[in-house]
Amino acid sequence: MAIKHVEEKVDKILKKGQKDSVVAPVRMERDSKFCFACHPGVPCFTDCCRNMNIILTPYDIVRLKNRLGLTSDAFLHLYAEPELLGITMLPVARLKMLEDQDGKCPFVTPEGCQVYTDRPVCCRYYPIGLASLRQQEKTSGEEEEFFFLVKEDHCKGFEEPTEWTVESWRGDQEADLYDRMNREWMELLLRKKSFGEETELPEKARQLFYMVSTNTERFRAYVFESRFLETYVVSEETQKKILEDDVALMQFGFEYLKHAVFGAESDVIAIRQDILDKTVKKIRKRRRKQQARLKRLKMGRK
Ligand code: SF4
Ligand code: SF4
After folding, report:
1. 263 or 96: whose pLDDT is higher?
2. pTM for the model
3. Which residue has the CA at smallest separation from atom 3 of ligand 2?
4. In angstroms, what CA-CA distances link 204 with 4, 32, 167, 229?
């Protein structure tokens, strides 16, 4: 899987950026060094936690709502607003800044981020972004991975003496875990993007995408309390896992969307054969009717 390619897009979609900020990206490798620290001693401490455009990934939401002891419904109501994501036109949740408090993030306090260990992915990666270049001159599919330092003038963290390599910074920020958790979801966004802007998903599909991406309780009820399990084959083992575990359910949700909304094969979910047969029958019947109508129309014209 072209994960690097995905990450380039991911970064574009999720990049931490204040409105009107000037970003000077500097290319880096895993062993490249830089100095940076963000702590209450820096003069700009918490200044950047306002007016941010933070798109919450499904894993961000699971971590945050569990951290705050909230249901997804309550979390979304208090802290998020839906929006259509750029060119994909897929509905996603954005962290709601506090309009009446100078656009502050709801989690920022003078002491720092209240949800630091569970902060969203885009707060986590700063100031290191990940990108890739598809190398035209090499065998198709080969890509070159690189990182970049996002050095913003207002950020005084770069004047601190703490030295990092890209690798040690990413380790400190749990970047690999977040990459892993977000990968399948990002693939879905790219899948939709590849359909082209003009291809709109049906309303029902968009609603499913939003539910799976933002609301584990609703999705769990959808799986276990609707006719879902009469339509799809899901192993007992998977059912047990997703009944209790939000992360397992989230990952199952990505497979479901891949299969049900984007029509791709999945290893963990498949439509039941009898349902499939019925659907095929219905489609054939509809086609036969359409063809007959067309024939009648043509004969009428003659
Ligand atoms: S979640 Fe935390 S780190 Fe991110 S903008 Fe809000 S306060 Fe800042
Ligand atoms: S601007 Fe930089 S140093 Fe200042 S709070 Fe933000 S990330 Fe930390």
Report:
1. 96
2. 0.83
3. 157
4. 31, 46, 42, 18
